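Shipment paperwork, digital attachment
Item: protein structure file
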Amino acid sequence: MQHEVKRVHLNESQKHQKYLKDEPKINHYRDLTSYIFQLRDLQTYNDESFNATTSLLQLNPEFYTIWNYRREIIEKAYGSNSTKLVQILNDELKFVMAQLRKFPKVYWIWNHRRWCLFKLVDLNQVNWEFEFKTVGKMLELDQRNFHGWQYRRFVVENLELEELNHQDENDVNGVLKLNLDEFDYTTAKISIDFSNFSAWHNRTKLIPKIYNLIIGNPQVTQTIDHPSFHLFQTPLSILNNDLELIKTGIYMSPEDNSVWLYLYWLLSDEFFVNAFEADDSDGQNYKQLLQQQIDLINEINALEKEDTGQENVGCLKALFKITELKNEEDVNKDEMRDILQKLIKLDELRKGRYEDSLRRYE
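Attachment content:
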């Protein structure tokens, strides 16, 4: 089911009329499926079987058994001729792209594209730069498609391998620049849409990766010239930068879960927490940071109540989770009960979860 497409409810008469209209298509689909299974059982690997899978996958791209059979055909019918195989694989990339334009969230299409690329790697004919530009264009069409973001990480990983193969294995500047560019890419996408969960998620992968590249190769990375390089001098410098970024998102979209999840990651992930412990033996700086964020959330919640007449569920949930990050002796149980009781009233779908949490503060 596609997002933002309303389901149409049909009465019995309309259902019958629709069935009569669709019956020829259904019969064609069944006949084609039966025919392809017969070809597979007979181990038929030729142009005929290949073209038949094309027809069926255009009708149903989620038929993973047919994708598997198609890969068998490619390997056994065309695998002995490397020139022909490269042509077939490049044509497959075009076929897959046409399918992705129509069905951008079908796992099996993305999986088949990866398979084609790895085959081209074996033939030394892969073009990761083209693939990188392609996925960039796809994310322009749907910047929140998590399949596209996951695929972008896959392409970047292979660009890294290519970068390392083309230079001294100890020179990580090319890899570092690639990841810093990706970090800036997430910033740009987030600035357009603070609800872009996939961009926030990608950022959680990039931040520790970039920092570890810099710390692990100080003699190499000193010469790099990149506008975001200065942010990664310490985990706390990254934290301060992203707290400012997320603050804007929270003010603009306090009802959106993406910004709260990222804020919680910033405040709870060991990458940042360990940096506080190393720099703050008594934990006062970390306690102060948590209280600053709690004060900010209370301020936003008050503004929401003033505008809408009720407190914001996202703010209340964030208050509860972030307060739980405090040491047990610093948590006010009365305040926690108050937050949970408000959530029980405002967010009835999760009432049971809040009631379970409430028992811990009785």
